[in-house]
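Lecture notes, structural biology module. Today: joint structure prediction for complexes of three components.
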Amino acid sequence: MRQNKSWMMLLAVLLSFSLLLGACSTNGGAKETGAPAESGTGGGNAGKDETVELSWYTIGTPQKDVNRVMEEVSKYTAEKIGVTIKMTQIDWGDYTQKMQIATSSGTPMDMMFTASWAFDYVQNARKGAFYEIDDLLKEQGKGIVETLDPAFLEGSKVDGHNYGIPAKKELPALEVWRFNKTLLDKYSLSMDGIYTLESIEPLLKTIKENEPDITPFAITKDYMPVLPYDYLISNLPMVVSLDKGDYKVVNVLETPELKAALDTMHSYYKKGYISPEAATTNGLDDTQKSGKWFLDRAATTPFADNLWSSSYGYPVVSTPASESMIFNWSVMGSMQAISANSEHPEKAMEFLNLLNTDPVLRNMIDSGIENVHYKKTADNAMENLDDSKNYDMPTFSLGNVTLTYLNPGDPENKWDEYKVFNEAGKVAPTLGFNFDTTSVTTELASIQNVKGEFWSALMTGTVDPNEYLPKAIEKFKAAGLEKVIAEAQAQLDAWKAANPK
Amino acid sequence: MPVKKPKRFDQISPAANFLLSLLTGVIAIACVFPFLFVVIISFTNEKSLASNGYRIIPKEWSLEAYQYIFRTGEALLRSYGVTIFVTVVGTLLSLVIITLYAYAIFQRSFKYRRFFSFFAIFTMLFNGGMVPTFIVVTQLLHMKDTIWALIMPMLVNAFYILIMRTFFSTMVPTAIIESGKIDGASELQTFIRLVLPLSLPGLATIGLFNTLGYWNDWFNALLYIDAPNLVPLQSMLMRIETSMQFIMQNSTNASLSTGILQDMPQDTSRMAMVVLATGPIVLAYPFFQRYFVQGLTIGAVKE
Amino acid sequence: MFDKLKIFLRDIFRNRAMLLMVLPGALWFLLFSYLPMAGTIISFKQYRYSKDGFFASIIDSKWVGLDNFKFLFSTSDAYIITRNTVLYNAAFIILGLILAVAMAIILVELTNRRLSKFFQTAMFMPYFLSWVIVGYFVFSFLSFDKGLINKTFEWMGMERINWYSEPSKWPFILVLVNLWKLVGYNSVVYLAAIMGIDRSLYEAAMIDGAGKWKQITNITIPLLVPVISIMTLLAVGKIFYADFGLFYQVPRDSGLLYSMTNVIDTYVFRGLKINGEIGMSTAAGLYQSFVGFLLVLLSNYIVRRKNKDNALF
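The predicted structure, tokenised, for the full assembly:
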């Protein structure tokens, strides 16, 4: 009998210990994934001839061969600048959340991807997630400054300082009307004279009358009319006029331009040009795959028509729907930042400098190991090999895209076209101004809920603006929009005084 | 009443049986149907799905979706391995700890039972939130990128402890424990020989809940796992799911729409993932069901 | 003083077997629940990162008092989200309980064991589907032009309904979907509890000539009361928490339905999408816990007065 009691004690004690042991033993185990090089914990002893390991968090579906490629990359960078690279890829949908937890818990990191649309650059710069790189750009980052259009660094300043390095890619935002060319040809319609929202109506009408199965005007819940206004925070109603030059913050819902656009959208909706489910449609994947659409709107890049056509499997053509404009958010489309808690910010900047100026490194990061993942077909051209499926990276998220080799089918003048495209962009009046929302977070939380309630329904024309627009304006007011606008105006005025144009 | 068949008290009448069977049958079909639907979609041709929408009998069948997933090959197998290991080890450990805790706070003779009950319940009502827990797991226990990060955070659950405690109190008559003590049995003997057999349905319930909890967990992997070889199945599914939604929501982003969209997994592969991720665990219920058997009476145990 | 210590040590020794039994669990609670609870301090701070790690960040961040809680109460939405959260949860608790218990009893009573087992398994199936998938499935019913229901309406010559812009329909839809998804899971607990009931009680009742209905009302249900009250008390503690997936994925985040679908969790999610202030999300969690805690204390007190054994603690 006694024996049994001690058995039970033993069991319980063992369990408790295994809890603790399980916890501690992993302490050692976690390390083995690290690269053979010095782990960054050595502190300030990273002298000139010692290599340091930099950890780099990037967005995109994790690829099988990442570690293999990074080994090659490390050999190259160790020789050139004395660093080795450990890359951690985090999938698209997880990136923002994971990085938020990682930065707020102080997880040690050196470099990370950030943008206006994933792991928000401005907000996280303000919270202190990134290392301020003004000085580093003058020293280790000289090459970056030389290669980038100045608008990139100007537009990505937060409260007057730089915290991230924008990737050199398309700079302005240009909206286009996209047409399903098959249908365009079938009814011998033309894109000539198409620019405004009103100008598309005759075409929509033809399609509606002849093709009952086709959605004439395919839009999602995120659709917004092209307006001559600049949003201080994307998709929230605080805007500044693009062409008046008055630097006055207004509520976009109260502008005549929006009212007119919504009236048109609602009439399109009633005429059946727009899907009755537009206000809850997340994406147009199915419609695009099946080709059951005639017209939609998208943001474009040089040669986008070709890319779209090849990915849908039928020809797509487009014509501009807006002016080409350089906004804060278009500048911040893809950036690399150095972590505030990085032990080696200088080394990290050296690496980022190399990434944005050195074609060998840039292409290794982008396409993998030569003759394993790709083979070179000319000085500036390459072809994917079979193994490239194990290392398929989102090119635009990894720095200067104009250094990457051309793929088969790419026009020879690809990067020249980018240059032309970028130079055509007009600078938005608020480029470089980023609204600091700290003092109005409470209001902003309510405003975002109001936005969710009305925005999609209004913008897609699903509801009658005569009835819902006043309601929405009313509710935004109740949520404190006026206070937010006043705060934004004060900040904008101060910014303008400090940055006379 | 010699003419009629003697009325049977231990069964419901045939008419009631028929009606109730019909009713539960309808509910059961409503519950199984969506699952069948998912299976069917996973075998539908992607193009025909896009143009015809969901159909019970698709126009074109296809294995493409599964081919797409099996392309990843070993990654999928490894994920199965991770999930199965975590589920089995986690459930067993968890069951032992929960049962011991619940048995202690169930016993009246335990002086601190109210304290320890409250100690458990309080954790259900308050939690420190994601970031502090993350700090404990990664910086105090150093479990990041280890299999323990998938097991430990879910090991104990006050909810299950309380259900177990209630099962003990409804299934185990105090007389039994007393009789055990009189017979001179130790606590452990009483517990294993008398108490556990009586609470089999309870153990099966908690075991089932634990199994499902571990199998379906993706959040701990999201928080703690970066290493691709430790990603469990559900987390793989969830990743594809959220990334798809994310990319679609950002489809107005020029870089994304020209660079990424074509590589996106399709509707059918998503459904195929659901089939692969839930298929095996659906069998878990019948396994635990075997323990939901009536007839373990006190007499049976005493033998 | 010394005596007290002696008594304490004696008590510890006397209860050593039981104390050892709770030890692993208690340790776990300390590590994984109580230690992180200290982090709730963030809800009173404007959390900013320090390069010296998490603790430095907490210490360096500015105190903001109750500012982080304000967004939960600042507008008329506060009433809507609180009402929706509480009423939906109340409906889920009450209807879920009745349905789960009824199902458990029916499944036990069905004459054909094999059929009963099959039904049990079947009812469990929805639990395996994530809310995203359930959302797709619901959409295939409610879609305006392709949906099964509207197609049926059309066929019967009735007007089609745009389900995703008609808030008045959604309380029914959400309750129905939630019950459908969870009834199998919830009835397992009651099923197990019924299986644990001593058979001899029924035998005795039958000898007394009690029919099936009498057996159910006089034996089964009264013996289920402890399980029912525990399950209900636990659910009451979570009454300020809403199932995010149900209220976000299933209505497809349709703005026109917010009056009936916006709950605390979706409100917080939407409100913090841009700034992602962890101080504010922690504050929201603390608020939800705190109200739940008060409600549990209250209802536990009431239950305890009626029957000590059915109380949580």
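Point to remember: DSSP finds 17 helices and no strands in chain B.
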